[in-house]
UniProtKB/TrEMBL annotation:
Coiled coil regions in record: none
Start and end residues of each PPC domain: 9-146
InterPro entries the record matches: DNA_bp_PD1, PPC_dom
Protein name listed in UniProt: DUF296 domain-containing protein
Domain of life: Bacteria
One Pfam short name: PCC
Length: 149
C-alpha cells in the first residue's frame, strides 16, 4: 500500500491510498486510517479484486449474511465513511458494487476483498471527530453525530 496527502487544507485533508495486488482491502484501509489517525472522513474507491466477500445485514439475526464472490471482479463503486469506534480505533463502513465478467453485479457491505491488480481510494478527512457506537437493539454500530468522544 502507498498513500499520498494531496491536500492539506484546514477544511479537508485528502489522501490517495493505492493498494497492491494481494492486499486485503478492508484490513489495509483500516490500518491506513489508524496509522493516519483519521477520526472523521468519507471514502470512495475503484479498482478490482480477485475475490471478495460482501454482506447483507439481516435485522432478524442482527448479523451480516455473507455473499462470497470467488472470481475476478471490478470495483465499480465503493463509498463509505470512517469514524472512531467504541474501542477508540478507526471504524470503517463501506458499501460496494462489484461488476462480474458477464456484466452482472453484486453488492453490499464490504467485508473483505483481495486486491488484483489495484484499488485506488480517496479518503477526505473532515476537521472533526465522528464516533460510531454499538446499538445493541440493532446489532450494529452507527455514527452518533452528537457524541464527542
Amino acid at each position: 500500500m502507498k498513500s499520498k496527502l494531496v491536500s492539506d487544507a484546514p477544511s479537508a485533508q485528502v489522501h490517495v491510498v493505492v493498494l497492491d495486488s494481494g492486499e486485503e482491502a478492508f484490513g489495509a484501509l483500516t490500518k491506513f486510517a489508524n496509522d493516519a489517525k483519521v477520526t472523521a472522513a468519507s471514502l470512495t474507491a475503484i479498482g478490482a479484486f480477485e475475490r471478495a466477500t460482501v454482506g447483507w445485514f439481516d435485522f432478524t439475526s442482527k448479523s451480516y449474511r455473507k455473499i462470497e464472490i470467488n472470481e475476478q471482479c471490478e470495483v465499480l463503486c465503493a463509498i463509505g465513511d470512517i469514524a472512531t469506534g467504541d474501542d477508540g480505533k478507526a471504524s470503517l463502513h463501506i458499501h460496494i458494487v462489484l461488476g462480474l465478467s458477464d456484466g452482472s453485479t453484486r453488492g453490499g457491505h464490504l467485508l473483505a476483498g483481495i486486491v488484483r491488480p489495484t484499488l485506488e481510494a480517496v479518503v477526505t478527512e473532515a476537521p472533526a471527530r465522528l464516533r460510531r457506537r454499538k446499538r445493541p437493539e440493532l446489532g450494529i454500530a452507527l455514527i452518533d453525530p452528537v457524541a464527542t468522544a
